Amino acid sequence: MTKRKYFTYILVLGSLTALGPFSIDMYLPGFEDIARSLGTSVANVGLSLASYFVGISLGQLLYGPLLDRYGRKKPLYAGLSLYIVATMFCMQARDINVLIALRFIQAVGSCAAQVAAMAMVRDLFGPKESAKVLSLLLLVLGASPMIAPTAGGYIVVTWGWRAIFLVLLILGAVILLLSIFFLPDSYPADVHFSLKPGPIIRNFISVFLIPQFLIYVFVQSLAFAGLFAYVSGSPVVFMSVFHVDKKVYGWIFAFLSVAFIGLSQFNSLLLRRYTSQQIIRVALIGQVVVGLVFWGFAQAGWLSLTSTMGFLFLFLGCLGYTNPNAAALAMAPFAKNAGTASSLLGALQLGVGALAATGVSAFADGTARPMAAIIAVTSVLALGISFFHHRRYVPRTLNE
C-alpha cells in the first residue's frame, strides 16, 4: 500500500468514525433554542438525544450481519443515505415528537459509518497495523466531543439551531462521496452468510453466556452510563442552571472532554505495572466517591459552576481508565466471534446509556440532581458487580 493510499484511507475512515459523535454533540448548545422554537421543554428536547442513543444501540446489531452478507460498501451507502434523508427532515421539524423519531432514524443511518469503519480497518490493514490505525481512529473519536459542541455553539448563535442539521447533512453527503470514490470494496459479499434470525440470535446468545463477557460488559456499560447522563444533562445544568451562554458551554464541554480523552492515554503506561482488573477496581472506587459526593452537593444545593465542573472532570478522568480496561477484558475470551462480541458490547453499552439519558430527561427538575444521581447509582452498581465477580471468578487476562 502506498503512503498516499494509506493516508487517504485513514482520512476517510476517520471521517466515518467522527460522524456519530458530531451528530450527538454538535446540537447540544441549541437545546434551549430548539425548546423555544418547538414550544416544548429542554427536558423533552433531551429525549431526542436519548432516541439517538437507542438508534445507535440497535444499529450495532443490525449492520454486523449486513456487512458480512453484502460486503462493506452497499450497507454503508444505504446507511449514509438514510442518515442524509433523516437529517434533512430534522432540519425542517416543527414538532418535538417528530424530531425525536427522526433522530432515531438518523442514528440508525449513522451507525453504518462507525461499524463499517471498524470492519474495513480489519480488511485493509494487517493485524499489527490495525492496532495503530484503530488508535488513530479513537483519537479522532475522542477529539470530536471537543470540536463539535464548540462549533455548534457558534453556529447556533450565528444562524440558529436548524443550521446545525444543515451542516450535518453536508457532512454526511461529503462522507458518502468520499466513501464511494476513495474506499475500495474491501470484503466480498458472502452469499452463504445467513441473515435468518435464528442463527444470528444463537450466535449472540453464545457470546452473551460467556461469564467473563457477561460480567465485564455490564461493568463497562454501567460505568459508561454516567457519560450519557452527563451529555444529556449538561445543557440544562450549564445553560439553564448556571446561565452560561452557548459559546461558553461549547468550551466547557471541550475542556471536560480533555479529562476523559487525556487521562485515558496514560492507561497503557499503567498496564506496564498493574493488571486491568486492578486499574478498574481503583478507577471504579474513584467514580463512586466522586459520584456520591457530587450527588450529596446537588441534594444540599451547594453546587457552583466551578464545583460542578470539578466533579465532572474527576468523574470523566476515572471513566477514562474504567472504560478501555473493562472493554478489553470483555473481549479477551474471543479468538472467534470477535465481531459479534464487539457489536453486542456496543449495543449494550449504548442501550444502557440510552436509559441513563432518558432518566435524566424524565426526572428533570431544573437542577443537577438527576444527572448526579444517575452518575452515582450507575457507578455504585458497576463497582458492586466488579467486586462480586472478583470474589467468584478470576478473569482471563489480555495476554492469554
TrEMBL record:
Membrane topology designation = Multi-pass membrane protein
GO-annotated molecular function: sodium:proton antiporter activity; xenobiotic transmembrane transporter activity
GO CC, one annotated term: plasma membrane
The record's PROSITE patterns line, in alphabetical order, gives: MFS
Listed A to Z, the keywords are: Cell membrane, Membrane, Transmembrane, Transmembrane helix, Transport
- Transmembrane domains' residue ranges: 7-24, 44-63, 100-121, 133-157, 163-183, 204-228, 248-270, 282-305, 311-332, 344-364, 370-388
A Pfam match: MFS_1
The source's superkingdom equals: Bacteria
Domain (Major facilitator superfamily (MFS) profile): residue spans on this chain: 9-394
Subcellular location(s) per record: Cell membrane
Gene Ontology terms: biological process: xenobiotic detoxification by transmembrane export across the plasma membrane
**What PANTHER family does the entry give?**
MAJOR FACILITATOR SUPERFAMILY, POLYAMINE TRANSPORTER 2-RELATED
Family in the record: Belongs to the major facilitator superfamily. Bcr/CmlA family.
| NCBIfam families referenced in this protein's UniProt entry, alphabetically | efflux_Bcr_CflA
What name does this protein carry? Bcr/CflA family drug resistance efflux transporter
Organism, by scientific name, is Puia dinghuensis
